[in-house]
Amino acid sequence: MSEDIIQIIGGLNNKAGLKQHIYRNTKTVFDELKRYAKEIAERLTPEVIKKDKSLEVQFSEISEFEFHLKFSGDTIAFIMHTNVFAFPPEHEVSKMEYVEEAPERGYCGMIQAYNFLSDSIKYQRLSDVGYLLARIFINSEAHFYVDGQRQLDFLFKDFHQNEINEDTIVKIIEQTMLYALDFDLYVPPMEVMSEITLQQKNYENNPNGLATGKRLGFKKE
């Protein structure tokens, strides 16, 4: 048996096995996110429809790796990536003592939360943009780290201490919803809409409409 084959076998037994373990951890967390998102929708709906029945909070399972949480004009799409990632050497995670003492802890699965306008999904406006609210990274020890907007950018940075549980999952979902509610749809600048073609005009009169996003034509906050 050649040295190359021995190295390949070692790689499969070690790194490939590690990545499979991380994938399973990430899928478990994603399934828990899905379960608690559904519970939040069921709990909130009776409260909000007292004033307006159109305010129902809806949970939709799109696939094994995607689900949506719709409320008012917003929809948050939670998407699990099926690959495992490593952080670049310059990233703060790679410089943490927790990762430096055991580099395999820096390999993570990833779950992303995107904010879309609900009409973008309803009318399948394929040019509309969604905005990334949070990225949840889970490693082989089921520790997690979050990149995100506002509170989500500093609440869950202690990779060494952060372990997934019901409280943290609910907190992450609630914070994405709060940010989406406060992230308004702005009128695009005049210069962005100053000219349209006849084709665009005809398209705009269709429910699919022109491309729309909460900050389309503006610099992101």
Please characterize this protein's 3D structure.
Helix 1 packs across helix 4 (166-182). Strands 1-2-3-4-5-6 form a six-stranded antiparallel β-sheet. The protein has six helices and six strands, in the order H-E-E-E-H-E-H-E-E-H-H-H. The protein has helices at 3-48, 97-100, 118-122, 166-182, 190-193, 198-204, and strands at residues 58-63, 66-71, 74-86, 107-117, 131-138, 144-148. It starts with a helix and ends in a 17-residue tail after the last helix. It is of the alpha+beta class and 221 residues long. The chain has one domain. 38% of the residues lie in helices and 22% in strands.
Total strands: the figure is 6
Q: N- to C-terminal separation?
A: 57 Å
Biggest sheet: strands, sense, closure?
6 strands, antiparallel
Low-confidence stretches: 216-221
Mean pLDDT: 84
Residue share in helix: 25-40%
Would you kindly provide a brief summary of this structure?
The protein is α+β, with helices and mostly antiparallel strands and 221 residues long. The chain has helices spanning 3-48, 97-100, 118-122, 166-182, 190-193, 198-204; strands spanning 58-63, 66-71, 74-86, 107-117, 131-138, 144-148.
